[in-house]
Amino acid sequence: MRKLSYYIGTTIDGYIASPDDAIDFFPVGEDLLAHIIEEYPETLPTHVREQLGVAGAPNKHFDTMVQGRKTYDPALKIGITSPYRHFRQYVVSRSIAESPDPEIEIVADPVAKVRELKAEDGMGIYLGGGGELASALLPEIDELIVKVYPVVAGTGVRMFSGAFTPTPFTLTETKTFDSGVLIQKYTRGK
What we know:
The protein is α/β, with parallel strands linked by helices.
């Protein structure tokens, strides 16, 4: 069975975006970028992979992406209707009635869709954000890969923004970068 991994960047105080959903305040040093290109190239949008010269890099961990509408919106705003063409892409939305691209499937029930996807053969499923979606999918999340940036935001979009639901995870890996970023990998606790 495939696993759902929440691969996300956050501030020290647990915010994944600013109050207006921006993520451009996260400092991405050369060391972190090199790690992402080497270890998680598929988590970069297709147009960014092209700019970095890694468009043909094979997916290492994921072949499917589930994201919320607010995570999808920045691509739409710059005219990109299929931001991760190297994935099967699902956008969870209550406000988008029809997909703007044949490569994007709009999903109303994320839990049912993720359970369906997990039952298939294949690589992992990348949960690309948002906090509300992560909270809705918390019972299905098998792994957290958290990039903690050396920034305090004070407010914004929380990594999880839902009901109080203590859910144990076990720390399985830690990697520290000279730029001050820390990557922590957790698996669902027993």
